[in-house]
Design brief:
The chain has 425 residues and is of the alpha+beta class. It contains 13 helices and seven strands.
């Protein structure tokens, strides 16, 4: 026998709306509870009512003699109203027969009254059960509508929400129940989506602009050179050098965008690594530029072991060091520290340079933000600090940047020692 096939007609008849299903469930539960209570009451009453007249209606021999004398004296044919008529007893035997007839009539009347009482109870109880079931269904329809009102609001808001209309919020008020938590969670999700879409649109616009710049430079250099009647070898060499610089800029931009995308995915490898090692390697890689600017480097690289993604951590430290060198001034300085505490490892890097207002510091970590007017640096793609912050966020790290009164930045990164492993799905 195919049970699912037998249940298909029942599923078709079962209502699809949650409010209707809740109403039917309320009515069915009320009917079931009422029916159980009715059965219990009926059983208790039926067992409590006796099925025969009480034993007090029987009489002893002495009582029969007294009854015989009373019957002869009184001369009536019936014990009372409702009893069957009997002949006037003349002796004790006839008196016994009269008594038996009276008792039989009493038993019949007693059973009739018992059945009538139980029948009335059952009839009125069933009528009351039906009324209560209907009332509970109506009350269930009303209450389920009130309970599902936040769900309808969430549904309507979700239908209105889109990439262009993510500002919708439920702002549900009332008791802190499951529906209130669902509405608050939905509002938080909309807020995160709104911020994510805004960031994505801004990033795509900036990336398109930045990638268009080297392409425009290459096209201009080629068009200017080819527009000349007979370009010389030096002119072609200058064009090739300009095109090469533009290609290098585009490659750097593409590599930075890929690194930013990888760091934003949050999928990390879990390997033991030391921030001090990566900091020393970053200083060594920047040594030619440090020597050119005659920068003084003060390093205290204590062991700073943690578990995380070595490539992202290396890129983060390399970008911070490159930022400190690139936006420095000739004859300036760089201070680099690494170390550990009880539950964290840290990296601190500070550099001299032009003064940066405090309100402009947070914007330096946004993609494609360059302080050219203040730092004088025109190279770079404007993604170094943004990638560093994204890589730090992937490791649940805290990045703090402060402007120094004498100029330059002071950046500190605090990373939980082994939280990178916990963030791995």
């Amino acid at each position: 026998m195919n049970v699912p096939a037998l249940l298909r007609p029942v599923r078709r008849l079962w209502p699809q709306k949650v409010r209707t299903r809740l109403t039917l469930l309320y009515a069915m539960l009320s009917f079931a509870v009422g029916l159980a209570l009715l059965g219990l009451t009926y059983g208790i009453l039926a067992s409590s009512l006796p099925t025969s007249p009480p034993a007090s209606l029987t009489t002893s021999s002495q009582e029969l003699n007294l009854l015989h004398q009373a019957c002869k004296t009184a001369g009536y044919a019936s014990k009372g109203k409702g009893y069957p008529p009997v002949a006037i007893p003349q002796d004790l035997t006839e008196c016994k027969q009269a008594k038996a007839a009276i008792y039989a009539g009493t038993a019949v009347g007693f059973k009739a009254q018992r059945q009538q009482a139980l029948g009335n109870l059952l009839r009125f109880a069933l009528i009351g059960l039906g009324l209560i079931t209907v009332a509970s269904g109506g009350l269930g329809w009303f209450m389920s509508g009130r309970l599902l009102r936040p769900v309808r609001a969430i549904t309507q808001t979700a239908r209105r929400a889109s990439e262009q209309h993510l500002g919708e919020r439920l702002a549900l008020t009332g008791a802190r129940d499951e529906l209130k938590e669902l509405a608050d969670t939905f509002d938080d999700m909309l807020e995160r989506l709104d911020a994510a879409f805004a960031t994505q649109r801004r990033f795509v616009a900036n990336a398109s602009h930045e990638l268009r710049t080297p392409l425009t430079v290459m096209r201009t250099a080629i068009d200017v050179t080819l527009a000349k009647p007979s370009p010389t070898g030096r002119q072609l060499t200058d064009m090739a050098a300009r095109v090469r610089r533009s290609i290098g800029r585009a490659e750097s931009m593409t590599e930075a965008l890929l690194a930013l995308a990888v760091s934003g995915q949050g999928k990390l490898s879990t390997e033991f690594t030391d921030l001090a090692t990566w900091a020393e390697d970053a200083i060594d890689a920047a040594a030619p530029e440090i020597e050119r600017l005659n920068l003084h480097v003060d390093m205290e690289l204590d062991p700073a072991g943690t578990t995380g993604d070595p490539q992202l951590l290396e890129r983060m430290i390399s970008n911070l060091v490159d930022n400190a060198v690139r936006h420095n001034q000739p004859g300036g300085w760089i201070r680099l520290r690494t170390g550990t505490s009880d539950t964290t490892v840290y990296l601190e890097i500070a550099n001299s340079g032009p003064f940066i207002p405090d309100d402009a510091v947070p914007s330096l970590f946004e993609p494609f933000r360059r302080m050219q007017a203040r730092t004088g640096a025109r190279d770079g793609v404007g993604l170094g600090l943004s990638i560093a912050r994204s890589a730090a966020a992937a490791h649940r790290a805290t990045v703090t940047a402060r402007s120094q009164p004498a100029g330059g930045l002071d950046i500190s990164v605090v990373i939980p020692r082994c939280l990178a492993a916990e963030s791995q799905p």
